From TrEMBL:
UniProt KW keywords: Oxidoreductase
GO MF term set: oxidoreductase activity
Pfam families documented for this protein: adh_short_C2
InterPro entries registered for this protein in UniProt: NAD(P)-bd_dom_sf, SDR_fam
Organism, as annotated: Actinacidiphila paucisporea
Family named by the database record: Belongs to the short-chain dehydrogenases/reductases (SDR) family.
Protein name stated in the entry: 3-oxoacyl-[acyl-carrier protein] reductase
Amino acid sequence: METTEFDGRTALVTGGARGIGAAVALRLAEGGADVAFTYQHDGAAAEAVAGKISGMGRGALALRADSGDPAAIEDAVDRAAAEWGRLDVLVNNAGTYAVGPIADLGAAAFDRSVAVNVRGPYLAARAASRHMRAGGRIISIGSNVADRTTFPGHTLYALTKTALAGMTKGLARDLGPLGITVNLLHPGPTDTDANPADGPYADTVRGFTALGRYAAADEIAAVVAHLASDAASYVTGAVVHADGGFTV
C-alpha cells in the first residue's frame, strides 16, 4: 500500500454517515487514516460508508451516538481512541438544523440545538484532547449563515454556529501548548441529500454566491483534509470559509 498523508493516523468524524460528514470520512480514509464515525438513525448509510472505508484497506468503525447526549458523544470519542490506541483527528460535523419563525422555536428547540451544535462539539473536543498527542487536529464544521444570515428563520441555527467561533479560539489557546490545533470551517451551500442543488430554493441560494453554484461535498472535505494535514501545522484558531463567496 502506498504511503499517503494520513498513514498511521486515526480520525473520528461525528455525523459521518451522510453528506459532508461522509465525504470527510472517505477523504481521510483515502489519505490513509483509519476512520471512526458516528451516526444516529441511518444504519444502512453508516454500513455503506464503513464498507467503502474498509474497501480502501483502512480501519472503519461506525458508532451509533446522539451528539446531543453528553455521555454518548464522550463514549464515542473514547471508543474511537481505544479501537486503534490513539486519536489524531476529530471532525465535529454532526448538527441539527432548526429553522423557522422565532415564535415557533421555543425552549425545547433552543435546548436541542445548543446540545447538538455547541455542547456536543465542546464535549467531543474535551474528550479528544485527553487522547491526542502533539500534532492532533480538531476541526469543527460551522455554516456560512454564521456570517451572513440572508434569510429569515435562521436565528437559532446561526446562533449555534456562531458560538463555534468563540469555542474554536478558546480551545486553540488552551490546547496550543499540547501541540493540538483547533480550527473552524464554514461551508456555504453544499449539494447533499439535506440541501440538494436542485431543491426548491436552490436558484435563489446560488445567486448569493460569487461562483454561482453549490459546492460538492468532496470540495468541503478537501478543505477539512488540508486542515487535518501537516501542511496546516501552523494554522490554529482560524475560521476558514469554503462558501463560494457567499459572505463576500
